[in-house]
Batch of 2 targets.
Target 1
Amino acid sequence: MLQKVIKCNKKYIKNYIKKKRTVKLIKFNVPVFTEKSKEYVADAFAQKHVSGDGKYTKLCNDFMRRKLGCDEALLVHSGTAALEMAAILANLQAGDEVIMPSYTFCSTANAFVLQGAVPVFVDIRADTLNIDESKIEAAITPKTKAIVPVHYAGVACEMDTIKTIAKKHNLLVIEDAAQAYDAYYKGIPLGTLGDMGCFSFHETKNIMAGEGGLFVTNNSKLAERAEIVREKGTNRSKFFRGQVDKYTWVDKGSSYLPSDIVAAYLFSVLDISDEIQAKRRLIWQRYYDAFAALEQQEKIRRPIIPAECSNNAHMFYLLCPDLATRTEFIAYLKEHDVAAPFHYIPLHSAPAGRKFCRTPQTMNVTDKIADTLLRLPLYYDLTQAEQERVIELCFDFWKNR
């Protein structure tokens, strides 16, 4: 009898393993890689210059200046680096305050903490999940020096109101546009509306370099200094342009240049950026249309895109009724080989957030969103069949629940 049970279990395990091998895991994200990627990276080596500011770094900078219509666009090694540059350029002193949402990645706050400043958290809007512009002024004190709007999921914050508040109180506006490549507010590219803009090209972003970022400004004084900050605080770029006979340390700074190998990979992705964006928008819209029925049944809520904002299809998320439901939903999709993670742990509730930052207001919307949001797979190589499987599983979850 025991041998029979063992034999039966072995057969079950064998069949289970066989089944698992035939089911392809649908990942949350898969990076883009083309034949041009190999070609450009190889060419970067052929230039015999693979450190910073090589051929491909310059090509990427030029591409971004044209794309964004900005005065200066400087490729850096990460979105974090771009934010750190902005924090240095803001001339922050110890104890100065910077207003931002708590529902963001830690780099948004960390960049300013490193300069001795205090991030001050403001709640987000329930529709766009962006900073609630109606609550910003109440958080302003004599110590406030900047507002940092984060364009969540590539959807623009209410920039007219934010800029009006900033002008009234003589504050800088530093856009965290990490998720906002090819996204617009009233037709203007995000990242170019404030004093400085910071993009990410991490492999989870629409346009990727594995790791990478971009610093943007239309302010000529900030642009000149940004070049120095990016080059370890030296005037090295002026030296190579023949503007000085030798270069030296002249300001604060750090090593924010990316390798030209990274830039070569990024440029290969920029080569097909229009195609990538068209595909991502198609996938996003297919999700949006498919889940209309579940939203009508009040099972979930879909993203909301205001009329003045474009949709760059950075992310497709669903909002569940509560934490318990979201936990079950994620587990169900994982059980069926679909990766659908939640997103941020709000910074105001994180240990470092409690230590370094200030939260003067209630964060009810932030806390609710953090408990109920999950993200569905969305990447360039996601097939229609894979997406249909994700959609079908989502409906199955709610049908069986």
Note: Confidence is low (pLDDT under 50) at residues 15-21.
Target 2
Amino acid sequence: MTYFRVSICKPRRGQDKHLLEVMTKVSDLAKNNPGCLESYILKPHDESGEIARITIYEDEHAAEVRANTDTMLALRSEIHLASESHVERAFFTV
């Protein structure tokens, strides 16, 4: 069952560029994972300043293997430090 991970972050003041760089690293790292079908960095159509990432995996196991590596955990920690809000969600196809 296809598995989607979605992150939506609002950067702290002055952290826009850094947050975008870290989110891009996360996306690129995910793309190199067996089982990752695609990963995108998204900016909204409005002026909210949010940065989002959607990554599509073959299944939840493929996502969890990548999510629990030291590199990914360190990058996710950077995201939390650079964000004033961070929402992480996961979805399956129906």
Note: The first helix runs from residue 16 to 31.
